[in-house]
Amino acid sequence: KSPGMKKGGVVNFVVHTLECLCPADSIPEKILIDMSGKDLGYSFTLDQVDLPAGVEPSHPDRDHIIATIVAPRTGAAEESTSTEAESEAAAS
To answer: Is the pTM here over 0.70, yes or no?
Structure first.
């Protein structure tokens, strides 16, 4: 449902943990973000996170970016690996 993901985009998590204030019996097992309709370059902010009732993020900035949809790195890893192999072969 995400045009960015259909184009091969990947989710770049800026925040890997989210501190929340809630009763111990309300700690969420998972946190969902709706990516429907979102394209490459879209940034998800903390206020877009769907938290269960009674759960509040402890971060003061609700517009804090937590994830983005970015274009995949194509060829960068392969190019660096082949360059390193060529350098090692030339040094031998």
So the answer is: no
Residue pointed to by tokens 């370059």? 41
Q: Which amino acid is present at 60? A: P
Band of residue 92 on the pLDDT scale cut at 50, 70, 90: very low
Tokens of 9: 């985009």
What's the mean pLDDT in 6-19? 90
Tokens 């091969």 appear where?
Answer: 8
Q: Is the dihedral of CA 79, 80, 85, 87 positive or negative?
A: positive
Number of CB atoms found within 10 A of residue 43's CB: 15
What stretches of the chain adopt beta strand conformation (E)? 10-13, 20-21, 43-45, 56-57, 65-70
